[in-house]
Amino acid sequence: YDELASEIGKQIYVDLAGWHLYSRDMTAGPGLKMDQALARQLGPKAAERLSERDIEDVLKKIQVKAGAGKLKVSLYDVMPSMCVGDLTKIVEDFGRN
C-alpha cells in the first residue's frame, strides 16, 4: 500500500495550535510512520467503498501521543474535518484503481 501511504502522507495532517504536522512525519509505532499505518488499515478495505463515517471510526481508534506521552488523543480529534474528507476521497480513489 505504498502508493496509498504516499498520497496520505502528502495531503493528510493534524492541526496543533495552527501548526500542520503531516502524517508522513508522525510516528505511529517503532519504525512505522502514520501515513503507512493508515494505508495498512484502510488499504485492504478500500474496495468496500468506505464512507466518511467508516474513516472517522478508524481515526477515533488511533491514539496520538502529545507532550512526550503525557497526553493521548484520538487522531480524529486533532485532524481537521477537511482532512477527514480528503482522506475519504484518497481511499475512494485508491479503491477504484
Question: What would you say this structure looks like, in words?
Answer:
- The model has no long low-confidence stretch (mean pLDDT 95).
- The radius of gyration is 13 Å and the shape is globular.
- α1 (2-11) packs across α2 and α1 packs antiparallel against α5.
- It has helices at 2-11, 34-42, 52-61, 75-78, 81-96; strands at residues 13-16, 19-22, 27-29, 32-33, 63-66, 71-74.
- It is an alpha+beta fold and 97 residues long.
- The strands form 3 sheets. Strands 1-2 form a two-stranded antiparallel ribbon. A two-stranded antiparallel sheet has the order 3-4. Strands 5-6 form a two-stranded antiparallel sheet.
- It has 5 helices and 6 strands; from the N terminus they run αββββααββαα.
In short:
This protein is an alpha+beta fold and 97 residues long. The chain has helices at 2-11, 34-42, 52-61, 75-78, 81-96, and strands at residues 13-16, 19-22, 27-29, 32-33, 63-66, 71-74.
Q: How large is the count of helical segments?
A: 5
The count of strands amounts to 6
- Describe the sheet with the most strands: 2 strands, antiparallel
Estimated helix fraction: 40-55%
Integer average pLDDT: 95
Strand proportion, as a percent range, falls in: 15-25%
Poorly predicted tracts of residues: none
Taking the alpha carbons of the first and last residues, their distance comes to 12 Å
Content-based structural category? alpha+beta
What quaternary form is this?
Answer: single chain
**What value does the Rg take, in angstroms?**
13 Å
In which order are the strands of the major sheet placed? 1-2
Write the H/E string, N to C: HEEEEHHEEHH
Estimate the global geometry from the Cα principal axes. globular
